[in-house]
Amino acid sequence: MSHTEWIDLRSDTVTKPTPAMRRAMAEAEVGDDVYGEDPTVNLLERRAAEILGKEAALFVPTGTMGNTIAVKLNTRHGQEVICEARSHVYNYELSMLAWFSGCLARPVPSDDGVLRWEDIQKEVRPLSPYRADTGLIVIENTHNMAGGTVTPIETMRDVCRRAHEIGLRVHLDGARIFNAAVHLNCDVRELVADADTVMFCLSKGLCAPVGSLVAGTAEAMARARLYRKRLGGGMRQAGVLAAAGLIALNEMPQRLAEDHGNARFLAEHLCRIPGIRIPHRVETNIVIFDVTGTGLAAAEFSQRLKAKGVLCNPVDGVSLRLLTHHDVNRQDCERAAEAFEAVARRV
Predict the structure, then answer these.
(1) What is the mean pLDDT of residues 280-286?
(2) CB atoms within 10 A of CB 313
(3) Beta 169-173 vs 104-108: how paired, if at all?
(4) Are 27 and 115 contained in the same domain?
């Protein structure tokens, strides 16, 4: 089967740049961004800061780099970082908390991926002769491995207010923060207003081919630029990438509700299939489903789906994760639903 015929639900990172993005990339005005002279990068950074309501922003190649820089900005070597037990910074970033920032993760479990102050407060530690002190709280919104669940504005505000009262800083891993804003029907700046730093990705549901942004105060972003260079993120004539990012930022958030609708459509079909269970609320574009009841391991279920033209990755021995996105329409989702049912019924 040709890869062009596959229905790819592995991630929203598989999205291709739109024709408008490709044209913008070809026509982009560029300069040397390490010297601060790329006008398209500068425009993207100003626009991102404006949308988020922050003083400044910095264009980085990846979300992992953005989170790594933000943790470094907000901590001292040897501190602890409180994060949710399934969070990206803890599980999927090659231990950069330790490798680059010299910090220890203090994972806190939650039922739905939403960290509330009552969960966090129990794990906050002052410096002592025996324990490292807490330096930072990381909130992930939406929460990837909790199934795209959304941290409400009130919860985010409460965590930030209480953290700031005791001298702690808060970083928002907002890789899919625009999905959260669409779900809550609010302006994205309301969701990020109280966080000290925020990172979001252009290369997921917003469809840009490459890139993320980290934002905060102007002073913090000046230091962040140096950390980016240390990490090898000086991209020179990066305007060809930033041009796609501008379209992603200005035009693509408005269509994310379509992805959410397609995720709910697939979830409704999955829930009707014997042996399949969805253990979380489906709020955005992520669905994690348990196939234990089918008698198949998740990897085998994935392989059988692939034979039917649907790509969907296992996340552990019993569960798979699917993500809807710009390059999967409702007709594709209908075909995918048929494939899920066919695999389960065959068992």
Answers:
(1) 97
(2) 15
(3) unpaired
(4) yes
